[in-house]
Amino acid sequence: MTSDPRNSFAILLVDDKMENLISLQRMLEGDNRYFHLATSGNEALKTVLRNNDIGLILLDVQMPEMDGYEVARLLQLNPKTRDISIIFVTAINKEEQNVIRGFSAGAVDYLSKPLDVNVTRAKVNVFEKLYFSRQELKDALAEKEKINKQLERFTYMVAHDLKSPLAGAISMLSMIREEDCIQQSPEIKDQMTTVLSATNHLTEMISAILDYARQNDTTETMETVDIKLLITDISKLLFLPPNIRIVADGPLPVITATRLKLQRIFQNLISNAIKYNDKADGLIAVGATDRGEFYEFYVKDNGPGMQQRDTDRVFRLFERLDYNGKEEGSGIGLNIFKMLVEEQGGKVWAESEPGQGSIFYFLWRKI
Questions:
Q1: DSSP state of 350
Q2: Average pLDDT of 111-139?
Q3: What are the Histidine kinase domain coordinates in residue numbering (predicted)?
Q4: What architecture does CATH give domain 219-365?
């Protein structure tokens, strides 16, 4: 029998005696229910694998060849079937050891033979309601994910379309600022500098939004990555100011990873360390420690630092900290850094002290 799983509730009844199955089915029949019957553990497993809409299994414990505990254990081992609710039906008295064994195998409830009609119906009614509630939640999450994907695409398109004309505007403004009539008027020159600064800041924000929209599309190609060479390449891309040095704080490993993800992570951290450094001799150190299952990487700077209470807040989306009376940055970059690391099963954290600089750490799982 086929039916729309959004409106129907499929129940698998398992017992080695057909008369028990027929009796149980009649007891539980309802307008929105349909049943699968199995007279052995092997048949029950095959039925579950053939039908992905089963919402509840009433499983007899005492069966020849394969008992109910073994059937439940095998269902628990399969990711496709482990979430199906199982009620054990048993004539064994409910001693504590049997109850513990049943719950360990994957049962969510017990029914004792001989079955009480009212109790049996009441319990099945509860699991039916839970099944439909879970389906509604899955549908809602799927719809939310669909909407999020649409918003990401829209954000990317808008940001991309804005970036090109802004780049042209910045180029034109830079040329105009160099004109003699502008250079000869300090007031107009300052105003042009302010406009250029605001336009550049807007471009940075758009670039950050593009990074955020693209973060789920990062290629998953694995390759050998020499972290020291990666940092050297990033340093060349960033055109370091003359007062900034980047050094390796001890040996850096060669690992198997997604190069693009690691490049975005280190580039984000190093760019921030450069942007906010307020020292005449800026120093950025990159280090790594082998932690067994993970590598612990860090990027340390001697910049302005921040209050320790802000070291968690700085990773939140659109969170911007106050530097010398001004809110700086887009509040996106460090959130992307956090997401990229957590996608690999790692975590991020920071240590900082005002005036003494900051250290940003992340754990990167080994492949």
A1: E
A2: 88
A3: 157-367
A4: 2-Layer Sandwich (3.30)
